[in-house]
Amino acid sequence: MIKFFKIIFTWWNGQTLGTFLNTIFFGKLVGVDDFKNKYYVDRNDKRWVIFNSEVEATKIPPEWHAWMHHLIKEVPSQREFSKYKWQKDHQENKTGTKDAYNPNKYKPQIKADYESWRP
């Protein structure tokens, strides 16, 4: 019952009621990415994504981002993407989490050869 109310009243918990109805009646599932996000298209070539968990745009991998913005026609799950050896797998934005980049964490700590003067 709580999930039903979340669908109706909040967009940050997945999808709104309007998106849910549009997906049921007009959406055609075209693929699922590594994060288990589902991608849909309608007969007018409108494209949208239903996120698996929290709605966060950085959870869309680059190949699906290109498809969503009509930069490529082929669905990424049906197209072979070549990766270089040096390329890493896509990760969501880690800002605000314990995994966020902090330059002080990686800076070597230099111990001084002296003690500061204290009054």
Describe the model:
- This protein is α+β, with helices and mostly antiparallel strands and 119 residues long.
- The chain has a domain at 27-78.
- It is 24% helix and 11% strand.
- It contains four helices and three strands; from the N terminus they run H-H-E-E-E-H-H.
- It has helices at 2-9, 17-26, 62-68, 103-106; strands at residues 28-32, 38-41, 47-50.
- Strands 1-2-3 form a three-stranded antiparallel β-sheet.
- Strand 2 and strand 3 form a beta hairpin.
- The termini are far apart.
- The model has no long low-confidence stretch (mean pLDDT 82).
Give a nutshell description of this structure.
The protein has 119 residues and is α+β, with helices and mostly antiparallel strands. It has helices spanning 2-9, 17-26, 62-68, 103-106; strands at 28-32, 38-41, 47-50. The model has no long low-confidence stretch (mean pLDDT 82).
